[in-house]
Amino acid sequence: AGLGVDIILLDNLASQELHMVVAQVKATHPWVTVEASGATVLRTLSQLLGPHIDMVSMGCLTHSAPTLDFALRV
Fold first, then answer.
1. In this structure, how many other beta carbons lie within 10 angstroms of the beta carbon of residue 62?
2. pLDDT above 70 covers what percent of the chain?
3. Does a structural domain hold residue 53?
4. Is 19 exposed, middle or buried (0-12, 13-18, 19+ CB in 10 A)?
């Protein structure tokens, strides 16, 4: 039976556990897109990368972005 999903988000897993779970998912459902997330920063990004990880979410890209103050007159 199918999973009924196209994408699975795995959030806040330890690196070793993440890669084990992703390998199991891809072995039985290779068409499913797997996204990894959770406390990811550029310094730790390499720990999440692997042959079965399709996408990585990084909140730090927007959480720490500088703001721009502007106004529009309509």
1. 7
2. 93
3. yes
4. buried
Q: What is the mean pLDDT of the chain?
A: 84
The total number of structural domains that make up the chain = 1
Q: Is residue 52 part of a domain?
A: yes
Q: Kindly report the number of other CB atoms within 10 A of residue 18's CB atom.
A: 22
Q: Is residue 31 part of a domain?
A: yes
Distance CA 33, CA 55 (A): 8
Domain range for 54 is: 7-63
pLDDT in tens, 1-25: 466 889 999 988 888 898 999 999 9
DSSP secondary structure string, 11-63? ES--HHHHHHHHHHHHHH-TTSEEEEESS--GGGHHHH--TT--EE--THHHH
Evaluate whether residue 16 is within a structural domain: yes
Model pTM greater than 0.90? no
